[in-house]
């Protein structure tokens, strides 16, 4: 975009005769009308993109395809470009228009106000000492205009010195001294805030330790990767009692969600790959307790486990001794959990309609399968009912489902069986239909129990950060690293589920945990935590 002419230069270019002035006015009016039209169209397009982006974000983690991620990234880029262009044009217009001599009525703010909780720094620009009009010096203050701008100070490093004064007794020469303060990690020189920043950086913001080390070096702080790794390991050991407490809380539920995701693992004990490296695909499993959809008062929590493989023995070990409703996908490794001979009893399987919908959606998105499109439409009607009862009591949810969802389910089953019978078993629509019909008991269990959700999205959302982080840190360095990642993800995701800032909670908890009674460790869990004043 060309730079606008300064006002003085623009004045020199004004036409000298009336006819030319009229022509210029008409031309400028036309340009103004076109600019207004373009601005309006751009505003409409920005709003459309915002709505599309919000919808895509909602659906992204209910689908496994790369298409969803690419769509979100594309929409974000388009929206960013439009908003930047809009802001650039607005500022350019302001710069090219001379400021009016008289004050005008300020326009209503288009943006949200800055957070009230942030501290305010006042920079007062002194007013004139004499009147601008008559030169008089008897001025009185009648008010002030305040313009707020958001600012961020660079990170400030400091060394905290804990000084323990020594006193000698004049009578017996005995030396007295205050006890040494507890430290988050033994033999470590990192304070709790720094430790929390490193943990949150790696596991919440997905920054590998080598990137953090490089960032600190640019600020003049030399912390090599091995030092940061030692701190992470020591902090994980310090926080282990909280992980155990969260595990007990999750396994005390009558129902929760489960899912898993792959992670690359490097370790000496692993076989070499074709490229010569030693790597394998491990798994991170998650079990999410979230009673909020049916108005439950118990706090939500997420429990992660690492395993070298995806074998069914791992979820069986994770859930040994637990019985209840298990909502998950149709992974065959879960079959042992539903075995009638299992002790203390078989888990009650609840299916995920998002997985069913995804299979039909992938077929319908190109418009090549009217049957798949019809299936998506019918399933969406079920989700619309679920949105209307989200957060309601168990009995109310069950009653609404019997009244509104059951007729739709009955019609859907009849339609699926009729359509599937007319298709080749090898066709993709028939396979999608068969996927649902083979699991019809698990898929319709939500009709009888208001605690069961329609989808397993709670578990899929809990794996979102791992999917993002995997692009940055690529792999876990060892099985121990996988276990450590599972522990820290348990803490961070549980804090997020309870609307607690993970870094602030970790910092305060690391500062307090060694002095806190072990029998009262649950006081430090995110839903019970209160920052010290």
From TrEMBL:
Keyword presence, Chloroplast: no
One Pfam match: DDE_Tnp_IS66_C
Domain Transposase IS66 zinc-finger binding: 128-173
Keywords: Coiled coil
Bilayer-spanning residue ranges: none
UniProt feature coiled coil, ranges: 65-92
Domain Transposase TnpC homeodomain: 48-123
Superkingdom assignment: Bacteria
Domain Transposase IS66 C-terminal residues, every copy: 490-527
Name the record gives this protein: Transposase
